[in-house]
Amino acid sequence: MKIFLDTANIDEIKKYSQMGIIDGVTTNPALMAKEGRKVEDVINDILDYVDGPISAEVISTDVEGMIREATILADIHENIVVKIPAIPAGYQATKYLSERGINVNFTMVYTANQALLAAKVGAAYVSPFIGRLDINSTNGIDLIKEIVQIYENYNFITEILAASMRTAVYVKEVALAGADVATIPPVALADMVNNELTNVSLEGFLAEYNKLPEDKKYVFS
After folding, report:
1. Would you say 4 and 23 are in contact if contact means Cβ atoms under 8 Å apart?
2. What are the CA-CA distances from residue 83 to residues 140, 150, 217 (Å)?
3. Which active-site residues does the annotation give?
4. What angle do CA 48, 52, 53 make, to 5 degrees?
5. Which of 17, 64, 95, 109 has a 20 to 30 Å separation from 187 between CA atoms?
6. Which stretches of 75-195 are DSSP H helices?
7. How many angstroms separate the Cα of 158 from the Cα of each of 95, 99, 118, 120, 122?
8. H or E segment at 64?
């Protein structure tokens, strides 16, 4: 499963890209606004660290506006994936853009039917919002399983990009359910990287090692 980092913060992107554990980045207007800079400048900085898909979202809600903004974003770099909201106008815009070679991440998806339609109009990715579904007493992992089954039934090539990953537990669950990608905020990715038991074990091993006389210790030179 591919892992994308859900942020526009360059420091976080740099840190995890240097670890070699992220395959792409997703952003949205709110994340971009937090950086207080031009969208194009932020994207160009991300490109310095990530050679993979970078999702940037339109803000218009009408077909013409979405197409215009999507075209501007896509022209920044070939790695840009344009996020289009799962509203009625979004399907038409997605079809238009996909037919012209612009990759679309069809976002804010909450039902398997939305995901089915997104695949039919050529979306490169579909983003079900798992965490928000769970808050509303709907099982987000079950939604991933439904979409996986539908896409397998009809050989759709749209990738399932699980979003709204509020904790590291969600990442494990969507991986087991068959998602192609999980986009993860830095705080959840930090929980995946760090484990208290690993730290305790390491401290124990090093404490025992340091008790050895100097002539018994490793020689690395």
Report:
1. yes
2. 20, 22, 55
3. 83
4. 115
5. 109
6. 88-99, 112-120, 130-135, 140-154, 168-177, 186-193
7. 13, 14, 8, 9, 7
8. helix 63-74
Looking at residue 40, its amino acid is E
Contact 86, 120 (CB under 8 A): no
Question: Confidence band (pLDDT; 50, 70, 90) for 115?
Answer: very high
Residues with Cβ within 8 Å of 11's Cβ and at least 6 positions away in sequence, in order, are: none
Closest to 134 (Cα-Cα) out of 124, 126, 143: 143
Rg (CA), the chain: 20
Whole-structure pTM value: 0.93
Domains and CATH numbers, the chain: 2-194 (3.20.20.70)
Is residue 110 within 8 A of residue 128, CB to CB? The reply is: yes
Residues 6+ apart with CB under 8 A from 2: 23, 24, 180, 181, 182
